[in-house]
Q: What sequence folds into this?
């Protein structure tokens, strides 16, 4: 249905009728909110009606090397979108752009914009605080990276950052997050045991709980099961499915079968460009691009 | 998704401002702390320059560098740095003649010959030699080594440069051996295997392959050992005597630049007097020498790290 | 041209000879050191008794003790630690976590490497000119503490940086991904996790400071102190006194230096005893540092 190779036809009037709420995040006091940097001009909209994230001519460069270019894609709200493609083609780079992880290291440059709806904030605009963005877009990493603290403290850290002090509230939210991450039953009796005493799969679910505890709008998964055994992988996939109606999920995966199993939408990245972006079923049964077909049939990897 | 208490998507106004402020505040505080190290250097350079400038203006660089007698506290003072330089050079030379060969041999042995478990024990044991306060080494030099040497060299005075130099060498051995051994162990196994494959034994491989490959690291350790010897104070102050003496005979007592500074400080030092200024002049010379050594050693160590 | 067998035999002999030579050299180093230690203990250990530790120096060797030196060393160490630790840790954190890779940072780093190689007596000269005279602090405990703090600052900075470097990037990224600012990441994760490494470096730095003689002599520490330092506790509020900071003082290595410099043999025994105490303290601190390091390695394994 949507083939972004012909994106020129996408520019028609937006279907959204509700005006975006006043921006709480990137407004400089005293400035006219309509003139705020990062708010994209009205006019561009994809055919997806409920858009959460939108790439507009997005690119990324490291030093003089352009890693991503010409990305114009929309990610549907409360759905799972998978990013597939051969190694080194920019999937993780794109994912890490959503929560401004590249800001941590020198020599990186964003081009274009990533719009976060419903506010219309440009995530990568220079005036937008990366810390604020990271509070709305959470990330789960490839290798589980819990803090060397207790299970409870791992999940509570994000909450403490947001000023949640009262132990009662903390306890409730930690429990809720662990339940959402399907880890509560295994940890409810040892919340104060060190996180490192958990198995690899459990640690990854702990990292998911940690991300969920702060009610993010988007959860970014960077090959979350590549370091795990098949049983643990299955549990995480089931978990992702269960989270779908609460958060928008973008998942980078090397495993095409995984994309087929859990993703609603799939994007195929090759050498930094989005070759095809479509509903998963359509892409894998009837890909529009020959390159896509070659990749999913294993012609190259 | 969450329970009874909903969280805002991000933190509201006041708390956010507090976090942003805290972030900026601590960045500034920590940055200032980092500048403190620069302040120390600035203090050193400023003091040495400012306090010795009137001295050099009064004495003149030429006389300073060529006169052969150093008696700044006398009624008719003479300000030739040569005796102090001689003391420093002779003691340093003796120390290096012990530390460089021994340190290198030990380093080669530890890196190429010693069984790993023995190395784990010996390396820290050697490093302990560097942890001993230098005044204790001074005690050794004066009360243990000198009497022993006096049996070998009859007529050896109580204060002499030989004893101090030897003990200084002992103290510097771990500096040389530890850094050299690190440098040698960092040489890739591939290079060694090339030599072994051609039929070389350990010694040949060590001398023709490992040592040259690790040369910048080893050189760095030598240079740093030199700097350490030049800057050493208490061993020479205790065992070599505090009398400036222009000689290269190690059996004689002499004073080094560092010992002179200590000797004058032990007495009365009216601020601004020529005696007071003379220790800064001596210190300036010392600083210049050790600075050159340290810069050279640093340059060599960086080259060694890049080559890895 | 030698035959092949001859060459092989020669090479093997060479290796054996060098093996022995190297082992002997290493053994010689350790043994000579052991011999010197033994001599120190032989002459000094017997001299250490309660009276020795609780007496002030005296003209009579048998009645002299190290009480003043102990007080001075303790007081100076307190000041040294109180200054060097916050300053050094803060500087280390900044250089490792905040500093951009530019010219200024490179200069600061080279500067610290240089400072580590500056002879300690020059720190004394710097303190003499700046602290004693320009700032007017005088030859007091405070000045001594500041001098030694400047001396061990590079040690603390390097230890902090190494400890921070050991923390994997993934932890930093996890913290940032949750929305933490740089300071929050440092305060809640990086500093707590690196405390063990920092503590090790601090203890090693202090063990070096306690044995330093030359810089303190240069700023005017006394060689003969027969009076106590003013105590830190007062009878009236606010119950804390800082008069001890402004007092003249001596320290253990200077006391030893003073005694070893006397021709009288009896004082040499005192010097040996002081040496034993000093060595015990220094080596003890090194041992504690090693213990802290291994305990910390067991607790957090990255």
A:
């Amino acid at each position: 249905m949507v083939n972004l190779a012909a994106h020129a036809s996408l520019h028609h009037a937006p279907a959204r009728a509700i005006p975006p709420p006043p921006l709480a995040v990137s407004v400089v006091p005293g400035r006219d909110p309509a003139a705020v940097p990062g708010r994209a001009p009205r006019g561009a909209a994809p055919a997806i009606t409920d858009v959460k994230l939108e790439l507009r001519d997005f690119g990324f460069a490291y030093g003089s090397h352009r890693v991503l270019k010409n990305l114009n894609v929309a990610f549907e709200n409360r759905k799972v979108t998978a990013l597939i493609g051969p190694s080194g083609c920019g999937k993780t780079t794109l994912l890490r752009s959503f929560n401004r992880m590249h800001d941590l290291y020198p020599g990186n440059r964003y081009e274009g914009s990533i719009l976060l709806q419903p506010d219309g904030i440009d995530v990568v605009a220079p005036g937008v605080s990366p810390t604020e963005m990271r509070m709305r877009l959470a990330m789960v990493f490839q290798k589980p990276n819990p803090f060397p603290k207790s299970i409870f403290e791992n999940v509570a850290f994000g909450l403490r950052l947001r000023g949640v002090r009262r132990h009662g509230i903390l306890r409730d939210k930690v429990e809720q997050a662990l339940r959402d991450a399907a880890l509560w039953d295994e940890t409810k009796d040892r919340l104060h045991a060190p996180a490192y005493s958990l198995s690899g799969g459990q640690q990854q679910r702990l990292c998911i709980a940690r991300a969920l505890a702060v009610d993010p709008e988007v959860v970014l998964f960077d090959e979350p099961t590549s370091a795990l055994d098949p049983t643990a992988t299955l549990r995480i996939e089931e978990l992702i499915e269960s989270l779908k109606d609460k958060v928008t999920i973008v998942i980078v995966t090397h495993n095409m079968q995984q994309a087929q199993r859990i993703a609603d939408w799939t994007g195929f990245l090759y050498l930094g460009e989005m070759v095809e972006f479509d509903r998963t079923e359509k892409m894998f049964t009837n890909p529009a691009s020959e390159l896509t077909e070659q990749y999913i049939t294993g012609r190259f990897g | 998704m969450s329970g009874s208490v909903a969280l805002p998507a991000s933190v509201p106004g006041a708390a956010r401002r507090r976090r942003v402020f805290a972030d900026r505040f601590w960045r500034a505080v920590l940055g200032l702390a980092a500048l403190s190290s620069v302040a120390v250097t600035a203090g050193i350079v400023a003091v040495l320059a400012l306090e010795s400038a009137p001295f050099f203006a009064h004495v003149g660089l030429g006389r300073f560098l060529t006169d052969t007698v150093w008696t700044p506290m006398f009624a008719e003072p003479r300000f030739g740095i040569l005796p102090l330089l001689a003391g420093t050079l002779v003691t340093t030379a003796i120390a290096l003649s012990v530390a460089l060969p021994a340190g290198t041999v030990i380093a080669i042995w530890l890196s190429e010959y010693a069984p790993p478990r023995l190395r784990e024990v010996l390396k820290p044991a050697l490093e302990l030699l560097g942890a001993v306060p230098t005044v204790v080494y001074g005690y050794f030099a004066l009360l243990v080594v000198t009497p022993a040497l006096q049996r070998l060299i009859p007529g050896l005075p109580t204060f002499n440069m030989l004893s101090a130099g030897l003990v200084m060498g002992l103290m510097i051995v771990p500096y040389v051996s530890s850094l050299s051994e690190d440098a040698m162990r960092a040489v890739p196994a591939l290079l060694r295997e090339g030599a072994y494959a051609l039929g070389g034994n350990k010694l040949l491989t060590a001398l023709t392959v490992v040592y040259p490959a690790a040369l910048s690291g080893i050189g760095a350790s030598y240079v740093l050992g030199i700097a350490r010897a030049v800057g050493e104070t208490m061993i020479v102050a205790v065992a070599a005597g505090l009398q400036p003496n222009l000689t290269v005979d190690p059996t004689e007592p002499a004073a080094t630049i560092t010992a002179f500074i200590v000797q004058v400080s032990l007495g009365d030092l009216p601020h601004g007097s020529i005696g007071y200024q003379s220790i800064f002049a001596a210190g300036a010379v010392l600083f210049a020498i050790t600075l050159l050594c340290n810069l050279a050693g640093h340059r060599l160590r960086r080259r060694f790290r890049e080559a890895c | 041209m030698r035959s092949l067998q001859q060459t092989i035999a020669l090479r093997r002999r060479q290796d054996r000879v060098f093996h022995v030579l190297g082992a002997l050299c290493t053994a010689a180093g350790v043994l000579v050191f052991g011999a010197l230690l033994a001599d120190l203990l032989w002459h000094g250990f017997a001299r250490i008794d309660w009276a020795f530790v609780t007496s002030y120096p005296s003209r009579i060797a048998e009645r002299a003790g190290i009480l003043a030196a102990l007080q001075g060393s303790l007081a100076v160490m307190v000041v040294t630690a109180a200054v060097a630790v916050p300053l050094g840790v803060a500087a280390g954190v900044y250089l490792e976590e905040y500093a951009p890779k530019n010219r200024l940072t490179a200069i600061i780093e080279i500067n610290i490497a240089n400072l580590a190689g500056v002879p300690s007596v020059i720190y004394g000269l710097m303190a003499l000119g700046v602290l004693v005279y320009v700032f007017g602090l005088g030859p007091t405990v405070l000045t001594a503490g500041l001098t030694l703090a400047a001396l061990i600052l590079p040690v603390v900075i390097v230890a902090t940086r190494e400890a921070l470097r050991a923390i994997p990037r993934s932890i930093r990224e996890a913290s940032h991904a949750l929305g933490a600012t740089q300071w929050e990441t440092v305060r809640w994760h990086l500093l707590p996790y690196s405390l063990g490494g920092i503590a090790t470096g601090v203890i090693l730095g202090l063990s070096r400071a306690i044995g330093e003689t030359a810089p303190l002599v240069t700023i005017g520490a006394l060689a003969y102190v027969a009076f106590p330092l003013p105590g830190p506790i007062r009878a009236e509020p606010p119950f804390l006194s800082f008069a001890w900071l402004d007092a003249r003082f001596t320290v253990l290595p200077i006391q030893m230096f003073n005694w070893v410099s006397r021709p009288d043999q009896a004082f040499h025994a005192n010097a040996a005893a002081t040496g034993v105490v000093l060595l015990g303290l220094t080596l003890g601190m090194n041992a504690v540092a090693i213990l802290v390091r291994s305990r910390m390695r067991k607790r957090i394994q990255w």
Remarks:
- Strands of chain B lie at 70-71, 78-79.
